């Protein structure tokens, strides 16, 4: 959990830095800070945001390389400095090594801008495009050499288009995922409890309006004005399109899982909002209202003596697990780490995902590798939330057989398996 926290701190600091470097006075910077805070800095305790941050360290860390690569590309276009071009290429290369998504949102943005910015000097456009291509090819070469010599291997991007009949639902799911990263999705919640989410919808509107304004200005000037903001707009657009038309949504299924691929768009839109509206009183007032409601809501949600990452309902679940169940268990991808950390290590909850055959398997992407046979001869529990997240009760029973007990705690079903349970049917 420490690594994602450090990386996210780096992302927030980077966002403030690249924005402040482009604003001329203290008043504008204060306005920009007010616009950035409710989007990036203060919603950390709200459950969906916490899931994204703690479970997607790689996607988070690469944002730092991407936003600073745009910063140095902007410097190169304004000054023609070879030093700026070299730093841009180096950051892009390191970022693509960390996450191939940056080849689309970072390199793709720079290449598309170089192609469309008709009023910029051709020499600068060719040099930026050439440096971008070299950086991506170097990153791919280094990854290949690393794997060939026994080093780690990275998961490639999903390069298959979604079937035509899935495109409409893909676009809807992608848009809903944008609302999730902004914590602006009121669907499925009680009307009286969605004031923070409804207010945050205004932040999404501000971001989209700011992106439209940047795009219109850049097109009218032939790319001469605001290259940095233009990079951000193109990057956000490529991120949205790449996710919506790819097969990634069908593979991951849940909008919460898919939302991590929209981190570049999230950061891009946050910076655009801060750079476009830093002196607009209406925008700043909306942002301050969102920030105030967020802090008040978070304060009321967190019970006394909480570690600060569980809701009141989840704290009740944790108390029940610590009191009545063995220390080992299985949970969803989203809640397993939160429960472990909140228990201060008293319980161990391993994340699981549903498989194509209907059984559940360990999700080893974020944990040390194991299989279910390590639970043979041990009592354990399985926590199943409702609505379901990464697996369901039928999958758990198909894997481990009938439980010794079935307990309901709030929106959770808890299955108890004694030490003499049947061996797992999947691992």
Automatic annotation (TrEMBL):
Annotated TM spans: 6-23, 30-45, 51-73, 85-114, 194-215, 227-246, 258-277
Record key words, sorted: Membrane, Transmembrane, Transmembrane helix
Protein name: Glycosyltransferase RgtA/B/C/D-like domain-containing protein
Source organism (scientific name): Gluconobacter japonicus
């Amino acid at each position: 959990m420490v690594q994602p926290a450090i990386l996210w701190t780096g992302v927030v600091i980077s966002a403030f830095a690249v924005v402040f470097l482009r604003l001329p006075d203290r008043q504008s910077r204060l306005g920009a800070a007010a616009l950035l805070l409710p989007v990036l800095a203060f919603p950390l305790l709200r459950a969906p945001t916490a899931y994204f941050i703690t479970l997607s360290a790689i996607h988070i860390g690469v944002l730092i390389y991407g936003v600073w690569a745009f910063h140095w590309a902007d410097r190169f276009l304004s000054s023609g400095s070879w030093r700026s071009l070299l730093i841009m290429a180096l950051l892009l290369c390191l970022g693509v090594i960390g996450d191939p998504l940056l080849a689309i949102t970072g390199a793709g943005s720079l290449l598309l801008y170089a192609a469309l910015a008709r009023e910029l000097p051709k020499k600068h456009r060719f040099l930026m495009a050439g440096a971008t291509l070299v950086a991506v090819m170097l990153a791919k070469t280094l990854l290949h050499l690393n794997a060939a010599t026994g080093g780690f291997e990275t998961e490639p991007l999903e390069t298959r288009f979604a079937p035509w009949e899935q495109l409409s639902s893909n676009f809807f799911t992608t848009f809903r995922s944008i609302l999730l990263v902004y914590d602006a999705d009121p669907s499925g919640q009680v009307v009286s409890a969605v004031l923070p989410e409804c207010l945050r919808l205004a932040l999404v509107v501000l971001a989209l309006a700011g992106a439209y304004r940047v795009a219109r200005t850049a097109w009218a000037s032939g790319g001469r004005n605001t290259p940095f903001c233009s990079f951000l707009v193109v990057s956000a657009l490529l991120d949205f399109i790449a996710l919506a038309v790819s097969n990634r949504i069908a593979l991951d299924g849940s909008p919460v899982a898919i939302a991590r691929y929209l981190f570049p768009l999230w950061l891009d839109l946050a910076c655009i909002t801060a750079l476009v509206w830093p002196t607009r009183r209406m925008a700043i007032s909306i942002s301050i209202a969102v920030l105030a409601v967020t802090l008040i809501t978070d304060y009321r949600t967190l019970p006394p003596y909480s570690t600060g990452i569980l809701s009141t309902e989840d704290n009740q679940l944790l108390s029940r697990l610590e009191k009545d169940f063995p220390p080992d268990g299985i949970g969803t991808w989203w809640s397993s780490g939160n429960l472990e950390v909140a228990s201060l290590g008293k319980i161990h909850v391993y994340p699981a995902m549903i498989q194509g055959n209907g059984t559940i398997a360990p999700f080893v992407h974020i944990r040390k590798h194991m299989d279910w046979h390590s639970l043979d001869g041990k009592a354990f529990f399985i926590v199943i939330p409702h609505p379901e997240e990464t697996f369901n009760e039928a999958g758990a029973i198909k894997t481990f057989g009938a439980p010794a007990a079935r307990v309901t705690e709030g929106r959770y079903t808890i299955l108890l398996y004694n030490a003499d349970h049947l061996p797992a049917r999947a691992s």
